From TrEMBL:
Transmembrane segments: none
Species assigned in the record: Acidiphilium acidophilum (Thiobacillus acidophilus)
Gene Ontology MF terms in the entry: cysteine desulfurase activity; pyridoxal phosphate binding
Record protein name field: cysteine desulfurase
Lineage summary: Bacteria, Pseudomonadati, Pseudomonadota, Alphaproteobacteria, Acetobacterales
Keywords assigned: Pyridoxal phosphate, Transferase
């Protein structure tokens, strides 16, 4: 039996003690950005108070300490994903990681006559960069269908790959709207069997379960620090070493070069080739602390806790008249979207907010998906390590009040 002391975990997050509108905060918006444990805040503050300097170029004590801490954060990320340290590129967020791949790997290998496949459940971050690449360079952009339960339709996937043009499958590991986990091992095997590479958007998944890029056989994997209890401004691109080696730079500037003259420049080795300019030093160190934090709790315990919360939420919402949960995948994580009959999601969210309950409403940066579901918007409750079943009960009570305001 897993022991999971949620009260002890809550004590690690100073913000959760806040009141909003004089009420206890019920924070059900972790899928947008998670709250930060004290250890993350402390790691960042203590760096700034005791050993802050620019990294990699200083020959002085501060710069060496700071560079060590920054590179130690890279080691933590590498260990976290089961990658090598030189396969870890620091970026600003998942969005930048995907744009980096589109504008380097994509520009080099995807032109007219080739195709990129995404799924119907992508966040805009894993759709728009491929549209931009299509418009710049001419690869086709294809969209694989999902089933009504919210899972990848493998029959359609076969169809999309049947002419041999597909060079890249870019797919989410977990939907931020439906909560669906995609079978990434199977998708990677499928892509590779068809001569394509796979990019996996792990922005949601990495928060909820252990990820092993080698076991998945991923070519590219991206995530953001701020959803993983770390700071904003730092994200990760994992790239398979032999792919990164062949990729041209993304942005030019300091840190990413080997030598520079007016005639031309030569590039540093990965990952530095892709890290032009001063990196997000403090934020990387904060992300390292966040990884230490979740690793100490352990993903077995985190997943079990979130499964309990999600099951509780699905059962609780199912018992509410006029409330409809969206997405019924077999394998799903701690995100539950729903509609309330006759009430717009923005009204639902605004009236919940007045009761101290934070949820998200709208398209969730996945407009084509929400439309594919035949909806104009949804309300979304999402869970973190600190979420309790009583917060989900508070959501249910809150939803009843919203319905009462609307005379239901
Ligand atoms: N992909 C998914 C599945 C997401 O949920 C998000 C964030 N909502 C992103 C990508 C983009 O993350 P970021 O804004 O941190 O780049």
């Amino acid at each position: 039996e897993m022991s999971f002391d949620v009260d002890r975990i809550r004590a690690d997050f100073p913000i959760l003690a806040q009141k909003v509108y004089g009420r206890d905060l019920v924070f059900l918006d972790s899928a947008a950005s998670a709250q930060k444990p004290k250890v993350v805040i402390d790691a960042m503050v203590s760096t700034m108070e005791s050993r802050y300097a620019n990294v990699h170029r200083g020959l002085h004590w501060m710069s060496e300490r700071c560079s060590d801490d920054f590179e130690a954060a890279r080691d933590k990320v590498a260990h976290f994903l089961n990658a090598d340290r030189n396969e870890i590129v620091f970026v600003r967020n998942a969005t930048e990681g995907i744009n980096l791949v589109a504008q380097t790997f994509g520009r080099k290998t995807l032109g007219p006559g080739s195709a990129v496949v995404v799924s119907e459940m992508e966040h805009h971050a894993n759709l728009v960069p491929w549209q931009m690449l299509r418009d710049q360079q001419g690869p086709e952009l294809r969209v694989v269908k999902i089933t009504d339960a919210g899972e990848i339709d493998f029959t359609d996937l076969e169809r999309q790959f049947s002419d041999g043009k597909v060079k890249l499958l870019a797919v989410t590991h977990m939907s931020n709207v439906l909560g669906t986990y995609t079978p990434v091992e199977r998708l990677a095997e499928f892509a590779h069997a068809h001569g394509a590479k796979i990019l996996i958007d792990g922005a949601q998944a990495v928060v909820h379960r252990a990820v092993d890029v080698k076991a998945i056989d991923a070519d590219f994997y991206v995530f953001s620090g701020h959803k993983l209890y770390g700071p904003t401004g730092i994200g990760v691109l994992y790239g398979r070493r032999e792919l990164l080696d062949q990729m041209p730079p993304f942005m030019g500037g300091g840190e990413m070069i080997r030598s520079v003259s007016y005639a031309g420049s030569t590039w540093a080795e990965p990952p530095y080739r892709f890290e032009a300019g001063t990196p997000a030093i403090i934020e990387a160190i904060g992300l390292g602390a966040a990884i230490d934090y979740v690793s100490a709790i352990g993903f077995e315990a985190i997943s079990a806790h979130e499964r309990l919360l999600t099951d509780h939420a699905m059962a609780t919402l199912a018992a509410l008249k006029g409330v409809q949960a969206i997405g019924h995948a077999q394998d799903r994580g701690g995100v539950v979207s729903f509609t309330v009959e006759g009430i717009h999601s923005h009204d639902v969210a605004t009236l919940l907010d007045k009761q101290g309950i934070a949820v998200r409403a709208g398209f969730h940066c996945a407009e084509p998906l929400v439309r594919r579901l035949g909806l104009e918007s949804t309300t979304r409750a999402s869970f973190g390590v600190y979420t309790t079943t009583s917060e989900i009960d508070a959501l249910a009570t809150g939803l009843r009040r919203v319905q009462q305001v609307f005379g239901q």
